[in-house]
Design goal:
The chain has about 160 residues and is α+β, with helices and mostly antiparallel strands. It has 7 helices and 4 strands; from the N terminus they run ααααββαββαα. The mean pLDDT is about 80. Pfam families: HMA_2.
């Protein structure tokens, strides 16, 4: 199929779909929405080979390291990394300030990780100090990925 530019027709269909919401009859909205859908499918069909190549080259639609993979990964991305030295990391979060229940939950979750020596949680400052054995921690791929995230997101002074 010949490559034709669908940008302007798709933009028109989107505008028509949105503008037709104000009309009393929904027939125009349905027609514009159907045209927009058809143009979108045609556009995807035109670029399917490029899309397949991009997926193969990148290993998928998204770089999965951008997205949290577990509860612990999500937690680590929700805190500020104040300092990182292999085996010793300090994190901060305002959510911990004055929140004893959350502090207990954080300490219980993190203390259970392999290689974790100590977890100190301070509800006055919202700080979490993690001391761990890096070699043991890195044997777990999830924890190794999180350590790498922490290492690359430490605040520069």
């Amino acid at each position: 199929m010949k490559q034709i530019s669908l940008g302007i027709p798709m933009l028109g269909a989107v505008a028509g779909t949105l503008l037709s919401l104000a009309l009393p009859s929904k027939r125009g909205h349905i027609i514009c929405g159907a045209v927009w859908t058809g143009l979108s499918v045609l556009h995807a069909w035109q670029y399917r080979k490029k899309l397949e190549q991009d997926i193969k080259r990148n290993g998928g639609f998204f770089d999965m390291t951008l997205f949290p993979q577990s509860k612990l990964d999500f937690f680590v991305r929700a805190v500020d990394v104040a300092s990182y030295i292999p085996g010793r990391t300090r994190l901060y979060t305002r959510a911990l300030v004055g929140n004893e229940a959350l502090a207990k939950q954080v300490k219980d979750e993190l203390s259970g990780a392999a290689g974790m020596k100590s977890v100190l949680v301070n509800t006055t400052t919202g700080s979490i100090l993690l001391e761990y054995d890096p070699e043991v921690l890195r044997t777990n791929p999830d924890l190794a990925r999180m350590e790498n995230y922490i290492k690359t997101h430490v605040k520069k002074r």
